[in-house]
């Protein structure tokens, strides 16, 4: 990760390997903190690192019909990744 202090939504999405719409959803659901600089939404590097270290089972809310939701089925242990 580079030495930036603040990332745009697009840059944060690239760092986390997520889409910009997922970053927007994380901000709306208060799972990812942000700062405003005028009209720009900026995400601190510490928030990106915190989010990357944590386990997240649900990012998107369930659909209205309740049939589908994006939920991780089993958590991946840190030892399996490294």
Précis, in short:
The protein has helices at residues 9-16, 20-28, 45-53, 78-81; strands spanning 6-8, 35-37, 40-44. With 82 residues, it is α+β, with helices and mostly antiparallel strands. The chain has a three-stranded antiparallel β-sheet.
State the main characteristics:
alpha+beta; single chain; globular; 4 helices; 82 residues; 3 strands; three-stranded antiparallel beta sheet; 37% helix
Q: Your description of this structure?
A:
The chain has 82 residues and is an alpha+beta fold. Helices cover 37% and strands 13% of the residues. Helix 1 crosses helix 2.
**Strand residue content:** 5-15%
Which class do the helix and strand fractions yield?
alpha+beta
Shape: globular
Task: Domain count, please report it.
Answer: 1
Order of helices and strands: EHHEEHH
Cα end-to-end separation: 17 Å
The low-confidence runs, each spanning 5 or more residues with pLDDT under 50, are: none
Mean pLDDT: 80
Strand order of the largest sheet: 1-3-2
Helical coverage, percent range: 25-40%
- Compute the gyration radius: what is it? 14 Å
Strand count, sense and barrel status of the largest sheet are: 3 strands, antiparallel
Number of helices: 4
* Count of beta strands: 3
SSE layout and pairing:
Layout (H helix, E strand, L loop, with lengths): L5 E3 H8 L3 H9 L6 E3 L2 E5 H9 L24 H4 L1
Antiparallel strand pairs: 1-3, 2-3
Helix pairs in contact: 1-2
């Amino acid at each position: 990760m580079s030495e930036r202090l603040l990332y745009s939504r697009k840059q944060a999405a690239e760092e986390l390997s997520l889409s910009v719409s997922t970053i927007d959803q994380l901000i709306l659901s208060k799972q990812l903190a942000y700062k405003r600089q005028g009209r720009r939404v900026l995400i601190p590097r510490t928030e990106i690192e915190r989010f990357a270290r944590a386990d997240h089972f649900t990012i998107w809310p369930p659909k209205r019909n309740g049939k589908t939701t994006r939920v991780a089925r089993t958590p991946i242990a840190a030892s399996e990744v490294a």
